[in-house]
Design goal:
0% strand, mainly alpha, 3 helices
Amino acid sequence: MNNNQSIQPYAFVLWVLLVLFVFRVSAQMAVAFLGVAFLPPMEEWSSGVFPYPYLLVAQFLIIALLLTICLQFSNGKGWWVRPNRRLSTGLLVSGSVYLLVMIIRYILRMSLYPPERWAGGSIPTRICT
C-alpha cells in the first residue's frame, strides 16, 4: 500500500469535518445577517467575549487552513501530510487540553444551571449569563 492509499481515509474524515464546520459557520451567519428564526438566537452562538466580526474572520481563516489541509491529504503530498512528530505531539496535547476544558466548562454550566441540563435548548458558550 502506498502513502496516498494509506491517507485516503484521513482525507475523507477531514473533508467531512470541513463541511460540518462550514455548515456551522453558515448557520451562524444566517442568524447574524439574515435573522433566521428557526435557529438559536445570536446570543446563544457566541459568548460575546470575542466580537462577532473578529470571530467571523477567524472562522474564515480556519476554513482556509482546513481546506489547504484537505487538499493536501487528498493529493497525498504537502507540508501537512508529511509526518512531523513535534507538530503531532503539540496538536495532540493542545487538542486534549481543549477537550478537557470544554468538558469542565460544560459540567460547570450544567451544575450552575440545572434547568438547562443536558441540552436545554441552549448552546453552552459561557459559564455564567
